[in-house]
Amino acid sequence: MSRPFLIAQISDPHLKAGGKFSYGVVDTLGALQRMVAHLNASVPQPDVVVISGDLVDFGRADEYAVLAPVLGQLTMPFYLVPGNHDDREQLRMAFTGQACLPVDTTAPTLDWVEDALPVRLIGLDSTIPGAHGGGLTHRQLAWLDQRLAERPHSPTLLILHHPPFITGIGHMDREPFANAAAFERLVGRHPHVERLLCGHLHRPIQKRFGGTVINVCPGTSHQVVLDLRESAPAHFRLEPAGYLLHRWHPEEGLVTHGGVVGDYRGPFPFYDARGLID
């Protein structure tokens, strides 16, 4: 295809039911509705949306019942993975028939592959029930190795909730990613992996990993405080909602842009009829 293929990434909606605000102060439903409206109105519009986990706040059926119709308002296909706030079975039931979820309902993790796009997407379920941190099992790593080997010339994005590295933000590092070193070695054997797309950290963060790059997406509502101390407490701020827009072109490669959602003045021109505005 000659035109670019656009993948919007959003993360960590943390939706609640009954109109409740997360942590008593965050209107996560309103924030997600604004994000959906923003993506739908974008020019050019993203071709697909990926959502990198923590879809709801407590993994309850009533929360997914609020989430599903909001995501259903997207005018483009969407793909999702669970985060540590999600419940696999409740998520599966809420999105029955969603193309990105495994057909095998007995599968222990919600890992999936999308092969029908210009960029191959592989979703990985990095959740560990009852834990804040995440990881990938040896079984998942073997499965991923096989999937990557199937199409060694297809540009591929790996989508998972937990970033497999230490951030420096103390409270987010207390449960390190399980099997991170083995995961990095595996990715390094497959140079067609263009990016790892992660959430969980509620901040835009990048890191080299296995010969490629990890892009961590900010949250759709609240952001983790940027506090690079080992003693950093678990605090957040109501900083602007953010997302990432990944632009793929077969000749130009993958470029990632950061975007924000909100009402800001502009746009204003740099030039008028006389040239650069003084």
How many domains make up the coordinates? Answer: 1
Q: What percentage of residues falls in helices of 4 or more residues? A: 10-25%
Helix/strand-derived category reads: alpha/beta
Q: Quote the beta fraction.
A: 15-25%
Description:
- The chain has 278 residues and is an alpha/beta fold.
- The protein has a single domain, classed as Purple Acid Phosphatase, chain A, domain 2 (4-Layer Sandwich).
- Helices cover 19% and strands 24% of the residues.
- The strands form 4 sheets. The chain has a 6-stranded mixed beta sheet. It has a 5-stranded mixed beta sheet with strand order 3-2-1-12-13.
- Strand 4 and strand 5 (120-123) form a beta hairpin.
- Helix 1 runs parallel beside helix 2.
- The mean pLDDT is 95.
- Keywords: Hydrolase, Iron, Metal-binding.
- Residues 7-204 form the Calcineurin-like phosphoesterase domain.
State the main characteristics.
278 residues; alpha/beta; Purple Acid Phosphatase, chain A, domain 2; 6-stranded mixed β-sheet; 5-stranded mixed β-sheet; 15 strands; 19% helix
Give a brief rundown of this model.
This protein is α/β, with parallel strands linked by helices and 278 residues long. The longest helix is centred in the first third of the chain and has 14 residues, at 28-41.
Which helices and strands occur, and which strands form pairs?
Elements: E1 5-10, H1 28-41, E2 48-52, H2 61-71, E3 78-81, H3 88-94, E4 112-114, E5 120-123, H4 138-150, E6 156-159, H5 180-188, E7 193-198, E8 205-209, E9 212-216, E10 223-224, E11 236-237, E12 241-249, E13 253-261, E14 271-272, E15 275-276
Parallel strand pairs: 1-2, 2-3, 5-6, 6-7, 7-9
Antiparallel strand pairs: 1-12, 4-5, 8-9, 10-11, 12-13, 14-15
